[in-house]
Amino acid sequence: MKIKSIALKNFRNYDYQKLELDDKLNIIIGDNAQGKTNLLEALYVCGFGKSFRTNKDSDLINFEEETTTVKIEIEQENGYEQAIEYRINQKNKKEFLVNGVNITKISELLGTINLVLFYPDDLKLIKDSPQERRKFINRELSHISRIYCLDIIEYNRILIQRNELLKKIFYQPAFKETLDIWDEQLALKGAKIIVKRMSFVGLLNDISHEIHKNITSQTENLSINYITSVKNLTNYDTIKGDLMAGLKKNQESDIKRGFTSVGPHRDDIDIKINGINIKSFGSQGQQRTAALSLKLSEIEIIKREVGEYPILLLDDVMSELDHKRQRDLIYTLKNVQTIITTTDVKNLLDDYINASKLIQVKNGSIQS
Ligand SMILES: Nc1ncnc2c1ncn2[C@@H]1O[C@H](COP(=O)(O)OP(=O)(O)OP(=O)(O)O)[C@@H](O)[C@H]1O
Ligand SMILES: [Mg+2]
Questions:
Q1: Which SS3 state, helix, strand or coil, does residue 340 take?
Q2: Which atom, in ligand 1's list, is nearest to the CA of 64?
Q3: Structural domains of the chain in order of their starting residue, each with its CATH number
């Protein structure tokens, strides 16, 4: 799948702008605050129906205007062409059209075009709390499994209810009678989630290990492991049994603390390079490369699921990789349409620059 062109009207700091994209590499160059990330954001909204940096759709409209319109043309590998268009007005109302037909649910939009974005915030995946890594796994898995997505929603609903009950029991111990019922429910869904996550992390480990080797000239071994309080991971029943036992064992302390201390909502993934945990011991470049390897794995997983490579958007990441890693990356991405931003083309490898369409952005305008 490739994006042929994008047209923006009153999007962020752009007035009217049309841009044709190269099938392979595109580099958006410009000083700070000129509109590079805005351009990626305009594309991202076509794929996900919302921005990655604001929840308020009207933020996307130029300060001086009432509405914004973005239109992109895409082409699938079989030559099939499609157009996605969206309009947003100041009342936060948005409309999406695929080939001119209005779509009512964002879920109908998902999958029309597959995009993978890597931007500086993605380092959180490595550096921040387990919550960020769980969010990553949940998002990735929800993409490829609707059942998982529903299981997570249901699990969280049960968890909220159990936590509310714990607080009630603290003041009125008689409520404790019903706690076992919630433990059973939670363990039932929780075990399903752990089974799916374990198999997904296994796949992610295989793919990202390979990619990471390729972008570090075979010098680094990346490994990812699922970390859970469950000891017996043999199958669904043993996981469920372990979860039940853990919940029961911690009932008293959970009541004191007012929250549930055992279950997949507390799990994590451990990310290592050459056997060493990189959250604590990795260099910045290693952390960035590892985050990138995980993101690039997403490309491979989408390719396996839908049969076509998605489009890769890289915001401000290339220039922070040394030239050797950049060279390895070009090779890894040879079949993927890539759009990258940078403030200084000097930081980029010549091979990159020569193979790319260069797009200069200045003050919300593309210089031709
Ligand atoms: N709704 C809007 N209307 C007009 N201008 C906006 C709007 N939202 C953001 N801007 C402006 O867009 C400018 C460019 O933003 P963008 O994030 O694309 O910069 P950038 O080129 O990626 O810069 P950097 O290299 O610092 O990341 C900012 O100066 C910001 O003030
Ligand atoms: Mg930017």
A1: strand
A2: 3
A3: 2-114+308-367 (3.40.50.300), 126-280 (1.20.1050.90)
